[in-house]
Design a protein that fits this description.
alpha/beta; Rossmann fold
């Protein structure tokens, strides 16, 4: 009973914070309308044709896997007789975020970059309950089987990292090596989100995303200007030719077609009182048992430093190897098997 009361109180607090941030967002929309006019604020460019980079055959072959309740889209590069490297994107991204890795590792692996449920060409079931982490984990398990493999090197970034952390804990026998980019272990993150006011402030967007409709609207404003800020902004973006105008168009084209409700539902479902999925035996796993490489860039604006820690494991700082502008281009994983 105490646990239920705690979750109810947590939900109320989250909605109050989200509503406050939503009010600030509405004020910003009004101010922008006064400054530049409503026509510019609500403008959207028509994109009827994908940019050429999305049709680049050197990135691999497009395919679909029919899972239990969705059809999942992926791009595959490399021979099918090679070990599987599975790449799981973050928010707000899709398979294209792994364009450099699809080329880099294809000689040693069959590299597969997925579109998670709700994204791009993968199915988008209605309702936030269809985006609980247990379903995302199940999708990855079913995909590995559908591709004809019994294990893989699993790589995840951001929300993809959340899924991969949980997958490796739930199904360790299916993961040879786990590689996480810029995503704290979910246990560590949950602890600090509850106990650290500084982290709660940095995670303001999580509370905002609990609101209906308004988060999706904010992404569409001024022709998806938020995507420009996220991918090439001052604080967290890529400031080099590794994120070109055409690359930005690829993201704008994709989300103008597929929308943001599915991706934002990941956050909405995450505050639904969900518990970690059980392992194959039905019991709770005690932690990550597979060999794991956790990569962080030097400049992160969303997490406090403590979230980079992985208690009980070795930590080594390799300066200047992987800067913020580099993580999308190539992960320094030359020590991988094969």
């Amino acid at each position: 009973m105490g646990g239920l009361a705690e979750r109810v109180i947590q939900r109320i607090v989250v909605l109050m914070l989200g509503s406050f941030i939503g009010l600030l967002a509405l004020c910003k929309i009004v101010i922008d309308c006064v400054k530049v006019g409503p026509s510019k604020v609500f403008s959207q460019q028509k994109r009827n044709k994908p940019p050429a980079c999305l049709e680049d055959s050197s990135l691999g072959t497009h395919g679909y896997a029919h899972l239990e309740d969705i059809r999942m889209h992926y791009v595959s590069n490399g021979s099918e007789d090679k070990p599987l490297m599975l790449l799981v994107h973050g928010f707000p991204e899709f398979w294209y975020s792994w364009r450099y890795q699809l080329k880099e590792f294809k000689d040693r692996y069959r590299v597969v970059a997925v579109d998670l449920r709700g994204y791009n060409e993968t199915d988008k079931p209605a309702g936030k309950s269809n985006y609980k982490t247990a379903k995302l984990v199940a999708d990855i398990k079913q995909l590995i089987t559908a591709l004809g493999y019994s294990d893989c090197v699993l790589v995840g970034h951001d929300w993809g990292g959340v899924v991969c952390w949980m997958f490796a804990e739930t199904f360790p026998d299916l993961v040879n090596h786990l590689i996480i980019l810029n995503c704290p272990n979910f246990k560590v993150f949950q602890k600090h989100l509850r106990s650290s006011l500084k982290q709660a402030k940095m995670s303001w967007y999580i509370y905002f995303f609990q609101l209906p409709f308004l988060p999706e609207l904010m992404f569409r404003l001024q022709d998806y200007a938020i995507l420009d800020q996220l991918f090439r902004g001052k604080h967290s973006g890529v400031r080099s030719d590794r994120m070109s105008d055409e690359d930005i168009e690829a993201y704008k084209y994709t989300f103008s077609r597929s929308g943001l409700t599915g991706p934002i539902n990941f956050y909405r479902a995450g505050f639904g009182g969900e518990r970690r999925p059980p392992d194959q035996s039905g019991s709770r796993s005690k932690g990550i048992s597979v060999p794991t490489l956790l990569l962080w860039v030097q400049r992160m604006q969303r997490w406090i430093t403590d979230l980079q820690k992985c208690p009980g494991n070795r930590r080594q700082k390799i300066k200047d190897i992987l800067k913020t502008e580099d993580w999308r281009r190539k992960t320094a994983c030359s020590s991988l098997p094969g």
